[in-house]
Design brief:
522 residues, alpha/beta, 3 domains, 14-stranded mixed β-sheet, globular
């Protein structure tokens, strides 16, 4: 590859192992976008980028992975998005750094949400790394990688060349971490102090890295935000042979080798057509990591790998998650407590309501009873045993809950993704923390607490800092949860009982929650 263009004032040029890269300077930072970290043939493992001549322009974001369906913008006030050109050759990353020197700054590598099937490194406006880099004196990186049928489609029955095609997206992330380990010192970062962090599917990818031997030594710490999701993002176990044969038949092709070059659009259409019946029958449909020799499987079923058992983790979720996307048919402020209880009994039935209401009072005495309808169980319930099992192995696992209502639509419980701007110090980039109902200075204070905790953890492996109360690590039987809201505090096992009792009613209630929450793109 040859790249050459005129260097001008206000640009930054860095020599990497592959060649010269030119970004730009803005507001005290050097910024580089769309840097290629690997290349790959479809369904194959990524390979290093070949060195280039001249200077590579890194002033524009690179391609993002193609999606399975055409996204329809909706719910943008809750989760503001950016949409970008797509191409399966999407192995690129973005860097924000305060200095191109030997500063050995902490490095934070963001893994985007969207499960393992959707999303991108720039999808959410709040993913912008400038404020985190500038205010935290850190090197911030976001990664694009292969997703869906491109990144998680097991074809191992068709030959050794496809041995880990079921985890190609994860291999891309590992390739990015290798590139970072090799090159980040030139961008002012410390290759031995890398924190991988992500939300939703991005948080789940942190766990995937813990269970992937090839990632060992490439990161030092992890932050899992709303990323312990239990069966929602379960491993895609089994063989992908039947799925591949169904797709080949649908496309009138004869070999997997032909699938490597067929246009993506018909490949995606074929997958969407044949996969529902296979899924209904309990067969492999891909779309999530595939347990094998390269990925040992999710830890609650297979155990945490001892090689990564001491890696510090911050793990947490949001009070409302998906349930806060559902329309609230009640005026939370105007209802009497008796009316709230009646509404819960009407919505969930008398038996679940009467069992859970007293436990909700105990766990969340500061909240209105009607907020029980918004309490998340999908993330929080599997998170509790995950943290307990992890804490049997170390004393470096911290738990948090983002509990701050947002002053939008008359006030709403926090939803899936609502904490991201606070972590990135980006609340001024989105609308929902502000407005006439906002308590003066509260959003800014919670932002400082969340941001400073993350930056302390990235720097030192411990999130303690001057903005929050003393926050001990968890033990196997004692979960010390930092509750981030207007009265930030640390509670012990505060919601364990309600989560246990909820399990008796989970299937029925969860079905109702998902049906109502499907109108927001997250």
């Amino acid at each position: 590859m040859k790249h050459q263009f005129e260097r001008k004032a206000g640009t930054s040029t860095v020599k990497t192992a592959q060649g010269l890269i030119q970004g730009y300077r803005h507001d005290g930072l050097a910024i580089f976008k769309g840097i290629p970290y690997a290349t790959a043939v479809r369904f194959h493992a990524p390979e290093p980028v070949q060195p280039w001549e001249g200077v590579l322009d890194a002033s524009s974001y690179g391609y993002v992975c193609p999606l399975m369906t055409n996204e329809q913008p909706r719910g943008e006030l809750y989760v503001p998005h950016r949409f970008w050109p797509m191409d399966e050759h999407c192995q690129n990353l973005n860097i924000w750094t305060p200095g191109l020197d030997d500063g050995k700054r902490p490095v934070l590598v963001w893994l985007h949400g969207g499960g393992y099937a959707a999303g991108s490194a720039i999808e959410h406006i709040a993913y912008d790394g400038a404020n985190m880099s500038r205010l935290g004196n850190a090197v911030v990186i976001s990664i694009n990688h292969r997703l869906n049928v491109l990144g998680y489609f097991d074809l191992s029955d068709f030959g050794e060349e496809y041995a880990n095609s079921g985890n190609a997206g994860g291999d891309d992330i590992i390739a990015a971490l290798r590139w970072i380990h090799e090159n980040i010192a030139a961008f002012g970062g410390d290759p031995e102090n890398v924190t991988v962090f992500g939300q939703s599917g991005g948080g789940a990818k942190v766990t995937t890295l813990l269970q992937s031997p090839a990632a060992d030594g490439l990161y030092a710490k992890g932050i899992i935000m709303s990323g312990v999701i239990g069966p929602v993002l379960a491993d895609a176990a089994g063989s992908g042979k039947e799925l591949a044969e169904a797709i080949l038949k649908e496309l009138k092709l004869h070999s997997v080798k032909e699938l490597e070059t067929v246009d993506y659009a018909p490949l995606a259409r074929a997958y969407r057509k044949v996969s529902p019946a296979l899924k209904q029958a309990g067969k492999y449909v891909g779309g999530c990591p595939h347990p094998n020799a390269y990925y040992l499987g999710e830890p609650m079923g297979h155990g945490f790998r001892p090689e990564t058992s001491k890696i510090p983790l911050m793990i947490g979720s949001v009070f409302g998650e998906f349930t806060s996307f559902a329309p609230m048919p009640y005026d939370r402020e105007a209802m009497s407590e008796a009316e709230q209880i009646a509404a819960i009994r009407l919505t969930w039935g008398e038996k679940p309501a009467d069992a859970l209401i007293p436990l909700f009072r105990k766990a969340y005495p500061e909240r209105k009873i009607i907020d029980l309808l918004r309490l998340d169980f999908i993330f929080r319930a599997p998170e509790i045993p995950y943290i307990a099992e992890r804490s049997k192995l170390n004393n470096t696992t911290w738990s948090y809950l983002f509990n701050m209502d947002q002053p939008i639509d008359g006030g709403n419980t926090p939803w899936h993704c609502s904490d991201i701007p606070y972590v990135f110090h980006n609340i001024d980039l989105v609308e929902y923390p502000h407005g006439p109902m906002a308590e003066a200075g509260l959003a800014e204070r919670i932002q400082e607490e969340a941001f400073r905790s993350v930056m302390a953890f990235a720097a030192n492996g411990n999130p303690d800092n001057e903005t929050i109360p003393a926050w001990p690590a968890c033990s196997a039987d004692r979960e010390n949860v930092l509750i981030l809201d207007g009265k930030t505090r640390v509670l012990q096992n505060h919601d364990h009982e309600i989560m246990q009792v909820y399990a008796e009613y989970a299937e029925e209630i969860t079905r109702k929650m998902f049906a109502a929450a499907g109108q927001i793109q997250h």
